[in-house]
C-alpha cells in the first residue's frame, strides 16, 4: 500500500512538473506568455473571448498535458481497483455467510407451520388479481424458500378469492394465455375451498371467442363458487361488448350465496339457485333499471339475510307483486334521484314484507338530503318491521313523521338521523323517562338550538327513576356557520358543568359540526378528536 501511495503522489505532480518544464526562459517570451495566459483565463471565464494564435498554441499545450495526466490517473485507478478486487470478493462471500448465520438463528425457524400458515392468511388483504404480478401476494410468499413455498401452496385459504380483470385489451394482447396459467394455479391451489369470484369488466370486456379457453377452466369448479361479483369497470354498460357475459350461462352456480352486481339483471344469464342466496347487492346507478325484472328476480330470493340496493328510483310509483323476505335482517337502500317521489319508496316497502328486519339504512345519493320526498305512509310501513334495532336515515323527515317513526319502533338500540331532524322537546322528555325507545343506547342526531333539551333527556336516562337504558354514545350535530361554529352554539354557562358531569358518568358525548361527520362510514363510538366543548 505504501508503494501505491508513493505512485499516486508521483502521478499527481505530473501536470505541475510538465508545466514548470515548459516555462520560457527569456524576458520577452515571459511577457508574451503572461499576456496569452490572461487571454486564456478570460476565455475560461466567458464565452466571448477569441484566443490569439499564441494563446491557442498555449491552450493546445495545456490540453495535451491534461489528457496525458488524465490517462495516467485512469491507469492509477485501474491499478487500485485491481488491488481491491480480491478483498471485495472475499468481503462479499463473508457477508453472504453472515446472512446465512443470521437466517440460521432466525426465530421464524421455530414458528410451526400451522402458525406460519395463519400469518400468511392474514397478510393477504384482498383477492388475487388475474392477471397479476408474481411479486405480489400471495405469489411472493412461495418464492422465499422451500419451506415457505410448501406452507403457502398447502394453505388453501390463500387462494380462495380471485379478482379477474376481464379486460378486452389484455385478452387481445396475451390471447388469454396469462389468464389461463394464473387461473389454473389459483384453482388447483385452492383445492376444495369455496371460491369468491370477482369479475371486473374493463375496456368493453373480451370477445366471447377470446375468453372461451379461460371459461372452460372455471366450469369444472362451478360447485365451489359461493360468491360472485360482476362490476362494470367502464361505468357504462353500453360500452360492453355484446355477449361479454354470455359465458355465465354455461356455468351452473348451485351453491351461490352472495351476489354483487352493477350491471343490469338481464345481462347476467347465469344459472344459479337463488333459493340459497344470503346476500344480494345491486348497484344500478349508471343504468336504467327494469323494476319488473327486479321484482321477478327477487321472488326467488327468499333466503336473503342482507340486501344492499343502489337504485335510480323513478319519479312515479311502480306496482309489483308482494315479496315476503322473512329471513332478511339488514336492508341498505341508496336512493339516487333528484326530487325522487316518496310514493315509490312507499311502494317499495309495500311490496317487501320484512317481518324480521333489524337494521335499516336509507341514504340519498346526489343532490341534497331534502330533495327526496318523504311521504306519510312510510312511517307505518317501516314500523311494520317492529324488530328494528338500528335505523340510519339520511332523508329529510317532517317533524310530525319523525315522532311517529321513533315511537313506532320500541326495540331501537341505535338511531342515526344526522341532518335536518330535530326531535321535539316533549318527545325528548318522554325519551328521558324511558317511555319511548327504552333500549336506545347509541344516538346521533341534529341538535341545533336544542342542546338544553338533549342534555335534559340524557340526564333523565341516567336517573335512577328512569326505566330506560343509558345512551352511552351520543353525537349531537350542529348546523351553524362554518367559521367559528363552536362560538355559535349559544352555550350557556350552566351547559359546561352539565356536559362535564355526563362525561364523568361514562357517556361518550361529542358536539360536532355537520361538515365534520362522514355519515356514509360512520360508526360508534365517534372517533374524531373531541372539541374543547365536548371535553368540557
Polypeptide structure, described:
The structure is a single chain. The protein has 536 residues and is of the alpha/beta class. It has 4 domains: 2-104; 112-272; 280-394; 413-536, no CATH class. It has 16 helices and 18 strands. The chain has a 14-stranded parallel beta sheet. A two-stranded parallel sheet has the order 5-7. Strand 3 (195-202), helix 9 (212-218) and strand 4 form a beta-alpha-beta unit. Helix 15 (451-461) runs parallel beside helix 16. 25% of the residues are buried. Mean pLDDT is 79; it is low at 1-33 and 528-536.
Quick structural summary:
With 536 residues, the chain is of the alpha/beta class. The chain is built from 16 helices and 18 strands. Helix content is 38%, strand content 16%.
Amino acid at each position: 500500500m505504501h508503494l501505491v501511495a508513493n505512485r499516486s503522489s508521483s502521478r499527481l505532480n505530473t501536470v505541475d512538473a510538465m508545466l514548470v518544464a515548459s516555462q520560457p526562459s527569456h524576458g520577452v517570451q515571459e511577457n508574451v506568455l503572461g499576456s496569452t495566459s490572461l487571454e486564456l483565463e478570460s476565455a475560461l471565464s466567458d464565452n466571448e473571448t477569441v484566443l490569439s494564435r499564441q494563446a491557442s498554441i498555449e491552450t493546445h499545450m495545456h490540453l495535451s498535458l491534461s489528457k496525458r495526466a488524465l490517462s495516467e490517473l485512469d491507469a492509477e485507478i485501474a491499478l487500485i481497483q485491481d488491488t481491491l478486487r480480491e478483498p471485495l470478493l472475499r468481503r462479499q462471500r463473508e457477508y453472504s455467510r453472515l446472512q446465512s448465520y443470521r437466517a440460521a438463528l432466525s426465530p421464524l425457524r421455530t414458528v410451526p407451520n400451522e402458525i406460519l400458515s395463519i400469518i400468511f392468511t392474514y397478510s393477504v388483504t384482498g383477492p388475487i388479481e388475474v392477471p397479476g404480478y408474481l411479486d405480489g401476494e400471495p405469489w411472493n410468499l412461495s418464492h422465499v424458500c422451500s419451506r415457505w413455498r410448501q406452507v403457502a401452496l398447502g394453505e388453501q385459504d390463500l387462494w380462495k378469492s380471485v379478482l379477474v380483470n376481464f379486460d378486452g385489451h389484455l385478452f387481445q394482447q396475451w390471447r388469454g394465455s396469462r389468464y389461463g396459467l394464473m387461473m389454473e394455479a389459483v384453482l388447483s391451489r385452492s383445492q376444495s375451498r369455496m371460491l369468491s369470484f370477482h369479475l371486473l369488466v374493463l375496456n368493453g370486456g373480451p370477445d366471447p371467442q377470446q375468453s372461451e379457453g379461460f371459461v372452460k377452466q372455471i366450469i369444472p369448479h362451478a360447485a365451489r363458487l359461493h360468491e360472485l361479483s360482476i362490476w362494470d369497470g367502464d361505468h357504462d354498460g353500453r360500452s360492453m361488448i355484446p355477449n361479454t357475459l354470455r359465458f355465465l350461462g354455461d356455468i351452473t352456480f348451485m351453491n351461490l350465496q352472495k351476489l354483487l352486481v352493477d350491471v343490469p339483471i338481464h345481462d347476467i344469464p347465469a344459472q344459479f339457485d337463488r333459493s340459497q342466496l344470503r346476500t344480494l347487492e345491486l348497484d344500478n346507478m349508471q343504468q336504467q333499471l327494469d323494476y319488473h325484472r327486479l321484482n321477478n328476480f327477487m321472488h326467488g330470493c327468499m333466503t336473503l339475510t342482507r340486501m344492499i340496493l343502489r337504485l335510480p328510483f323513478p319519479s312515479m310509483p311502480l306496482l309489483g307483486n308482494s315479496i315476503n323476505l322473512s329471513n332478511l335482517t339488514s336492508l341498505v337502500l341508496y336512493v339516487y334521484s333528484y326530487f325522487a317521489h316518496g310514493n315509490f319508496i312507499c311502494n317499495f316497502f309495500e311490496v317487501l314484507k320484512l317481518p324480521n328486519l333489524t337494521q335499516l339504512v336509507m341514504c340519498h345519493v346526489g343532490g341534497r338530503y331534502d330533495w327526496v320526498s318523504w311521504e306519510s305512509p312510510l312511517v307505518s310501513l317501516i314500523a311494520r318491521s317492529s324488530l328494528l334495532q338500528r335505523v340510519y336515515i339520511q332523508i329529510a323527515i317532517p317533524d310530525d313523521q319523525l315522532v311517529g317513526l321513533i315511537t313506532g319502533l320500541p326495540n331501537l338500540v341505535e338511531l342515526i338521523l344526522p341532518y335536518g331532524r330535530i326531535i321535539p322537546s316533549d318527545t325528548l322528555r318522554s325519551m328521558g323517562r324511558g317511555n319511548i325507545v327504552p333500549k336506545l343506547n347509541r344516538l346521533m342526531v341534529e341538535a341545533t338550538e336544542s342542546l338544553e333539551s338533549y342534555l335534559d333527556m340524557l340526564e333523565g336516562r341516567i336517573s335512577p327513576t328512569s326505566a330506560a337504558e343509558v345512551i352511552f354514545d351520543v353525537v349531537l350535530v350542529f348546523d351553524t356557520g362554518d367559521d367559528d361554529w363552536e362560538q355559535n352554539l349559544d352555550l350557556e354557562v350552566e351547559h359546561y358543568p352539565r356536559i362535564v358531569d355526563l362525561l364523568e358518568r361514562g357517556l361518550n358525548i361529542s358536539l360536532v359540526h355537520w361538515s365534520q361527520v362522514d355519515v356514509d362510514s360512520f360508526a360508534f363510538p365517534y372517533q374524531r378528536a373531541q372539541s374543547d366543548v365536548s371535553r368540557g
